[in-house]
Automatic annotation (TrEMBL):
InterPro entries: Acetyltransf_C (IPR029098), Acetyltransf_C_sf (IPR037157), Hexapep (IPR001451), Lipid_A_LpxA (IPR010137), Trimer_LpxA-like_sf (IPR011004). GO terms for molecular function: acyl-[acyl-carrier-protein]-UDP-N-acetylglucosamine O-acyltransferase activity. SUPFAM superfamilies: Trimeric LpxA-like enzymes. Keywords: Acyltransferase, Lipid A biosynthesis, Lipid biosynthesis, Lipid metabolism, Transferase. It comes from Bradyrhizobium diazoefficiens (strain JCM 10833 / BCRC 13528 / IAM 13628 / NBRC 14792 / USDA 110). Gene3D superfamilies: Hexapeptide repeat proteins, Udp N-acetylglucosamine O-acyltransferase, C-terminal domain. Its EC number is 2.3.1.129. PANTHER family: ACYL-[ACYL-CARRIER-PROTEIN]--UDP-N-ACETYLGLUCOSAMINE O-ACYLTRANSFERASE, ACYL-[ACYL-CARRIER-PROTEIN]--UDP-N-ACETYLGLUCOSAMINE O-ACYLTRANSFERASE, MITOCHONDRIAL-RELATED. One of its GO terms (biological process) is lipid A biosynthetic process. GO terms for cellular component: cytosol; membrane. Residues 176-257 form the UDP N-acetylglucosamine O-acyltransferase C-terminal domain. Pfam families: Acetyltransf_11 (PF13720), Hexapep (PF00132). This is Acyl-[acyl-carrier-protein]--UDP-N-acetylglucosamine O-acyltransferase.
Amino acid sequence: MSKIDPTARVEDGAVIGEGTEIGPYCIIGPNAVIGANCKLIGQVTVIGHTSVGDNCVISPFAVLGGAPQDLSYKGEPTRLEIGSGCTIREGATMNVGTIKGGGLTRVGSGGYFMNNSHVGHDCMVGDSVIFATSATLGGHCEIGDAVYIGGLSAVHQFTRIGPYVMVGGVCGVRDDVIPYGLVNGQYAVLESLNLIGMKRRKFTKQRLATVRAFYQKLFHGPGTFAERLEASRPLAGEDPAIAEILGFIGKGKRPLCLPAIEK
């Protein structure tokens, strides 16, 4: 049985899952669907065509399903979908999509979104991500699984960040970041591989050595980057991570984030 505080406003048509708690002064719009066993602590706003998966915890002043911050939006019934098991902290915001962007913003399961973080319209965010305080995405970004975005970092619209990437704090990410990358700097540059994250995901010493050798050849070997990329393509069969990195390159609308020496 769901529990709804008497001060909360739940519009007709909203769907509240079994065991979910809606705290004081929450606002739940008529097209909201909230899964089972969620906890909206208080003063949470869920509006628009928004669905929230089971077992999510949402802190005060979070706003989910607000209109896109896009001048072309004219009130169309676009959507926001949030997976299960997410923690969404104070003041975090996530917007619905736009018609021109496909009409959907999607956030995966198991994410942790710290205070004042933001997911812009038409973004696709993977599972198990962590957005630190005030980490923000422009519209149409693609964020892979298990990505960490540091505090006060901002990701430019249409940027792709591959899975298992770590973005340092106070970074402006303007270019696509390869899977397993580590980026830092005011205007983010590729520093290295996210070796700590790879070790946490049980990469063996041999796999780490293989991927590191590939990384050095691709980003720090002789010749131009285009020449090194072409020469590295036969290495795709040596490790799935190498194949993933090679498959990622060149498929987005933004340039590729490179080491400082390549800038």
